[in-house]
Each structure stands twice: as structure tokens, then as C-alpha cells.
Design goal:
Strand content: under 5%
Organism: Alicycliphilus denitrificans
Structural class: mainly alpha
Helix content: 10-25%
Protein name: DUF3108 domain-containing protein
Radius of gyration: 48 Å
Shape: rod-shaped
Order of helices and strands: H
Distance between the termini: 151 Å
Length: about 90
């Protein structure tokens, strides 16, 4: 193909691309405009969050274990008197 035809074809393709892309809003939509886009495959909105079920009330706290009272220490044994030494 001659160079002149390639140059003309390249200029024509660039001009058509520029005209088409100049009419499309950046980022999807303009301010306050409804969504009327030619290509919106990448502008898919995520599905809404499912509503969370109400949490069940927490179970009642377990009662504290009852402490057993400590046994009282045994009273000390009465001291036995020492036997007197036997007289010879």
C-alpha cells in the first residue's frame, strides 16, 4: 500500500476514534445524568448486602460454683505434763 493511503487511513481511524470517545462520559456517567452508556460492562453494581438476621440473645451466665468452707484446723493437742524423774 502506498504511504499516502496508509497515512490517510490512519488519520481517518484516529479521527473516528476521537469523535466516538469524546462523546462518552468519563467514569461512566456525567453529573446528574441517567446511565446511558454504550459500554457499561465494567460498571456493574454489586448486589445489595443481605439483611443480617438478628443475633440471638446471649445465653445467661453460668452461676459461680459454690465454694466449700475450709475445714477448721484441729485444735492443738493438750500438752501432757512431763513425768517427774524417778527418785533413786
Amino acid at each position: 500500500m502506498p504511504r499516502r493511503a496508509l497515512l490517510l487511513l490512519t488519520a481517518l481511524v484516529l479521527a473516528l476514534h476521537w469523535l466516538l470517545l469524546a462523546d462518552l462520559p468519563l467514569g461512566g456517567t456525567g453529573q446528574g445524568m441517567p446511565r446511558s452508556m454504550s459500554f457499561h460492562t465494567r460498571m456493574v453494581e454489586p448486589p445489595p448486602e443481605p439483611e443480617a438476621a438478628p443475633a440471638p440473645p446471649p445465653p445467661p451466665a453460668a452461676p459461680r460454683p459454690v465454694r466449700k468452707p475450709r475445714p477448721r484446723p484441729a485444735p492443738p493437742a493438750p500438752e501432757a505434763p512431763e513425768p517427774a524423774p524417778a527418785a533413786p
